[in-house]
Design brief:
Helix content is 48%, strand content 18%. The chain has 260 residues and is of the alpha/beta class. Strands 1, 2, 3, 4, 5, 6 and 7 form a seven-stranded mixed sheet that branches. α4 crosses α5. It is rod-shaped and about 120 Å long.
Length: 260
């Protein structure tokens, strides 16, 4: 009974407090002003916040439109894209034309040695002795693992086209001749096939020039041919039967040494 009476008294007290607050607001002019100022400040903050949100959204949209225009400029229209594809295809063919293509590493070794001999003779160097070229696979699809090794002249066979892209390397020795050396370097470095002189050791005192020539070739097996196509290179067996220095280790740094 007492709880019910207290609830009634509490409920009846709420309107009286609200009425008292209204009466105080009507009587207190300063309080009304401060409340209006606070409400105005709150409204102003809300407007400024909405404006900031709008500006940020507009900036994001502008950036997106700018990126879209840039992508369209880079991609171009359909005609531009077709022209770019044609240029890319032409460049790919041009690169492929500079790379040797053999049906097996064995054939590549033989033809590379013959090509070097031909270039040296064209440069006026007739006493060049070319060692048996070696090869090692550069393809990234060689099986990985602790026991797996990339196909090479000394690691075994190159079956089923597993070599793919290979690097061929051969040693060359001939009598020192400044003019012949210059022509030989120009013939090898400037050839239409991708080739380079990796190491050069020329000694006028010893009357001898030793250099290592390297190139890249693609192994494309032909159906019906022997795909084993790998031989163990004999570093001391030159193509013309004369002794020659052992070829350099795989992928050494380019070294040029001339002694007078």
């Amino acid at each position: 009974m007492q709880r019910a009476e207290s609830r009634v008294a509490h409920t009846s007290a709420r309107p009286s407090r609200i009425d008292a607050l209204r009466a105080e607001l009507r009587a207190n002019h300063r309080l009304r002003i401060w409340m209006r100022v606070g409400a105005g400040a709150l409204m102003l903050w809300g407007v400024l916040h909405l404006q900031d949100v709008r500006n940020a959204t507009q900036n994001r949209l502008a950036d997106a439109e700018k990126r879209q225009r840039l992508l369209k400029q880079q991609a171009g229209d359909s005609a531009t894209q077709a022209a770019q594809r044609m240029r890319l295809a032409a460049l790919t063919r041009q690169i492929e034309d500079t790379i040797w293509q053999f049906s097996s590493p064995t054939i590549g070794q033989a033809e590379f040695a013959e090509w070097i001999t031909t270039q040296m003779r064209a440069a006026g160097v007739n006493d060049a002795r070319v060692s048996q070229p070696t090869f090692r696979s550069l393809s990234g699809d060689v099986p990985q693992g602790a026991a797996a090794t990339a196909p090479s002249s000394t690691s075994g066979t190159c079956a089923d086209g597993a070599c793919g892209l290979v690097e061929l390397r051969a040693g060359v020795r001939f009598a020192f001749n400044a003019g012949g050396l210059t022509k030989a370097l120009a013939a090898i470095e400037g050839a239409s096939r991708l080739s380079a002189v990796e190491q050069l050791n020329a000694s006028a005192r010893e009357g001898r020039v030793d250099m290592t020539v390297v190139t890249v070739a693609r192994v494309i097996p032909i159906a019906g041919t022997d795909r084993a196509g790998a031989i163990v290179a004999d570093a001391g067996a030159p193509s013309n039967g004369a002794p020659a220095p052992a070829p350099a280790a795989p992928a050494p740094k380019k070294i040029v040494q001339v002694r007078w």
